[in-house]
Each structure stands twice: as C-alpha cells, then as structure tokens.
C-alpha cells in the first residue's frame, strides 16, 4: 500500500522473484475495506508507505478482532530514511523496507513459476459499478501485455517515463515491467500536478506518461505560468472516455501527442488503442473529428475485439449505428476473479469476455464506445452516451467534475440530468452550463436539469453513478433549471490527503 515510489516499483519484481503473488492496493482504501481485502487475499506480508501507517494498523487491529491472523507489516520509509517512527504495536513488524532488503542473500535463486499461467498479481476493480473484485493476472498475460505496451505506445529503447498513472491500477497498465524491458528511466511521483508534469519534462526530458482523461484537463486548464514550452513532443496515453475536442486541441497545441486507449482491470489496462492513419489527415475537419472520437483497433497481441449482441452472440453490422456489447477474446485477459468462479464463468460466457460496455462498429474496423450498459440513456428512442455529455461538461473552464445520469420523464422515458462540481473560487449558473452544452451538443443530449455540488465518489475517486441514479429515481421531479446536492451530501464518502511532494528518479537496465 504505497503511492508511486521506488519501493513499489521494485516490489513488482522482487515479489514474483520470491515466488509470491503481488497485490498493489489502492491508497484510498479505508481501514475496514483494507481489512476485508487482506482477509480475501490471505496476505502474509503487507508493505506500507509511512503515509498510510495509521490506516494499515487499524486494519490489522480489525483482523485481530475477527481472529484472523494479520500479515506482517513492513514499513516503507520516506525516501531512504529509517522507519523507526512507525509504531507497529507489537504485530511482529519491526522491519522497515530497507532493513528487509539488507537481510537478502547474494546467492538467492529466483523462484520461477511452475507454469506460465500461474498468478503473478491480483488487482482490484474500482468498484464504480458495484463491489470491487479481485482480478487475477497470470505471468503469461502480464508478459504479453508488457510487450503489447511497447508496440502500441510507440516506445523506443531507454525512454523516460513519468509515473502519473497509479501502479495499483493494473500494475501501472503493466508498464512497470515494460519499462524494465526497455531500460527506461522511471520518474516516480507521490503527487501529480500540472506544475510537476511540466517541470519533470523540462528537467528530466520525459518522453511518456499515462493516466485518465482528467490528466488532460489538468494540463489544459493549468495556469499559463505552469505551461512551460516543451523541448520536444511528449507522448501521453489516456484511457477512459475520449476528451472533448477543445481540451484535446489545446493539449496537442502545447506539444503533446495524445494516444487514446480503452480497457479495464480485467483486460490488464487499455486493450484498444487508436492508431492514426496518414490518409486520415486529408479528411474534412468534421469527419476528422468523428474519427478521432472512435476508440480504434485492438493491439497487436490481442486475439479479438468485437461488438456483439449479448443474447445471440452474433456480431453487429459495421454500420456505425447498431449498438452491441464490446467483447474481448485474448491471452491478454485476467485468469478470473479471486474466489468467485460463478462471476468468472458469467464474465466469459460464450467464450468471450463481456465488458458490459456498449458500442458500435464502423466499416473501417474502428469501434466506438457509447457508454456503460447501465448508464446509457434512452430518450424518445434516441440513445444518449453519458460519456459524450460528460466530456463536454468537463471542457467548461469552470467545471472540475461532472456526471450525467438518466432522469425519469413521462414523455421521453428519460432525459439527461447533469451533476456538476464547479472549481473552487468560481461560480456558474445552470443557464450558463446549458448554453455551453447547447453550442456543442444536439438538443436531445443537452442536460435538462443541472445539480451543483460535490459528487459522491468511492475509495478509487470514481463517481458513484449508482448513488446519483438512486437519488434521481427517488426524487424524479428535479427543477428543470437548477437544484442542489445539499440534501444528500452527508452520504458522500470523501477521501484524500495533502501529500508532501517527492520525485524519485532511477533507471532499470536489462541484459
């Protein structure tokens, strides 16, 4: 349980080499969730960064109360300092990380997996659509996905990688291992900001970094004083809903090359990445924009990506209109869910992994994600992608967070309802937001209600749409212009802390 510090990167190698299975845990977990996770993992050791010592100790206490043997705790100090200040409450954890390494033997023999399909790690889903699930990665899948990363992100030998994507997310999309294969320099961060990104590029000549689409908003909306000129083009890989064109254009104008990927924990990160074809440069601007908003093609090492009717399992027509479920079939997929064979079998029903996401297929082979199956809005017979509406809302200069759900409507069945959090120090009216959307979206996609306030998030920082949807369904008569979250903000779960900023630099070379 640690932020992106060197120890966590090193453990991605040391743990498998010791014959064990790694689980990089979300640093936003509370004590009770952490305790349940450790119990499910049957963990023997937990490495804890000094920032999360209190949470870890409470979790171990909870395990002891349940008569569950807690794992031994190894403290990760701040940089190379000792961890004598970490009180372990007599839980047999008087070692710090550096002390443990000093106990190692030079003649240690690496314990290799018996079979390539043996597990190497367990990663947890974000829980945005339900309870987080443990996802098992095999050595084979992680190896193949690491190679795929190199191809699909156009990486050369000796890149400089800035760790803006959490290593607890799909083992950093398996880029932890890919960076070692390339002899990369890793710039490790405790905290991410626009200033750190620009400073790191200038100081360390960063070539690549990754993250959710919000990282582009961070760059585009940064104060002009932080937007230092780039000495060369820098590759940014994002995974999630495609950013609105205004944000993308601004980021590209600053000198960033943006790759867009689509995937999930079960696919070891982005499984589809959009390659740009030279012939598309000659397309008209509006057609160019349409193509940019498509997810693209699957990577070199994935066997199949399709859009199918989940009932018949037949592929939908390549007409760009017929909606189906996006499905994968590949060696670069999870082995299954930890201690949950029933859900695993359902996820792989028919020999394909069912993502639960809806999309369409175009004639040129590109697929376009529309929405989560649970989130798409059907209004007057028209399918509305909440992701597209949210991308527009997030491009508003005053908006920091946004979520869109369907609001019951007697005439149209559902209409879009937007929940918006405005940046601190700014004010915005519902009329301003709807006018902004009206200039960028067709009428049926413009939110009919605007609700201002903080959004409920889970421990991963993802918006809990199901909680918003429950509130909307329970009180469908929201004012058509504006409302407030004050009535139910008490139910919001907030996580976060002020991090002391540190940057760690080190290189991994392979022979």
Sum this structure up briefly:
The protein is of the alpha/beta class and 511 residues long. Helices cover 27% and strands 24% of the residues.
Strand content: 15-25%
Radius of gyration: 23 Å
Low-confidence stretches: 82-92, 275-296, 479-502
Described by strand count, sense and barrel closure, the largest sheet is: 8 strands, mixed
Strand tally? 24
Instruction: Give the total of domains.
Output: 3
CATH superfamily of the largest domain: ANL, N-terminal domain
Instruction: Indicate the mean pLDDT.
Output: 83
What is the overall number of helices?
15
Any idea of the CATH class of the largest domain? Alpha Beta
How far the N terminus sits from the C terminus, by CA atoms, comes to 30 Å
Strand order, sheet with most strands: 12-11-10-9-8-6-7-24
**Shape call:** globular
């Amino acid at each position: 349980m640690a932020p992106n510090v060197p120890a966590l990167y090193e453990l991605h190698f040391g743990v498998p080499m010791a014959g064990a299975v790694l689980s990089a845990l979300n640093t936003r977990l509370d004590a009770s969730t952490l305790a349940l996770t450790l119990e499910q993992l049957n963990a023997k050791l937990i490495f804890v960064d000094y920032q999360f010592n209190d949470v870890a100790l409470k979790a171990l206490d909870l395990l002891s109360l349940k008569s569950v043997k807690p794992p031994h705790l190894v403290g990760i100090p701040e940089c190379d300092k000792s961890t004598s200040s970490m009180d372990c409450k007599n839980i047999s954890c008087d070692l710090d990380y550096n002390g443990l390494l000093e106990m190692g033997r030079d003649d240690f023999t690496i314990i290799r997996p018996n079979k390539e399909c043996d597990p190497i790690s367990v990663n947890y889903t974000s829980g945005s659509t339900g309870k987080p699930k443990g996802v098992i990665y095999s050595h084979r899948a992680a190896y193949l996905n690491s190679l795929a990363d190199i191809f699909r992100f156009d990486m050369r030998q000796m890149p400089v990688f800035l760790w803006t994507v959490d290593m607890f997310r799909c083992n950093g999309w398996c880029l932890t291992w890919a960076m070692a294969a390339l002899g990369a320099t890793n710039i490790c961060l405790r905290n991410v900001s626009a200033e750190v990104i620009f400073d790191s590029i200038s100081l360390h000549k960063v070539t690549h970094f990754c993250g959710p689409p919000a990282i582009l908003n961070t760059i585009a909306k940064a104060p002009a004083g932080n937007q230092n000129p780039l000495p060369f083009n820098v590759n940014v890989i994002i995974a999630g809903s495609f950013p609105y064109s205004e944000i993308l254009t601004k980021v590209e104008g600053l000198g960033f090359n943006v790759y867009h990927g689509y995937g999930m924990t079960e696919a070891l990160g982005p499984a589809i990445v959009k390659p740009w074809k030279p012939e598309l440069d000659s397309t008209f601007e509006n057609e160019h924009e349409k193509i940019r908003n498509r997810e693209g093609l699957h990577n070199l090492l994935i066997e199949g990506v399709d859009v199918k009717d989940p009932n018949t399992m037949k592929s939908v027509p390549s007409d760009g209109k017929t909606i189906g479920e996006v499905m994968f079939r590949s060696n670069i997929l999870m082995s299954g869910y930890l201690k949950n064979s029933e859900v695993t079998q359902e996820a792989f029903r028919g020999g394909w992994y069912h993502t639960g996401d809806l999309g369409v297929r175009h004639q040129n082979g590109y697929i376009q994600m529309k929405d989560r199956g649970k989130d798409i809005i059907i209004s007057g017979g028209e399918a509305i992608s909440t992701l597209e509406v949210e991308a527009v809302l997030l491009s508003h200069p005053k908006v920091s967070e946004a979520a869109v759900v369907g609001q019951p409507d007697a005439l149209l069945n559902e209409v879009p309802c937007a929940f918006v959090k405005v940046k601190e120090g700014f004010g915005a009216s519902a009329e301003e937001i709807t006018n902004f959307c009206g200039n960028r979206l067709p009428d049926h996609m413009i939110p009919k209600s605007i609700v201002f306030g903080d959004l409920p998030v889970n421990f991963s920082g993802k918006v809990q749409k199901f909680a918003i949807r429950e509130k909307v369904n329970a009180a469908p008569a929201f004012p058509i212009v504006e409302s407030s979250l004050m009535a139910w903000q008490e139910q919001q779960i907030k996580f976060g802390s002020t991090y002391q900023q540190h940057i760690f630099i080190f290189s991994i070379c392979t022979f």
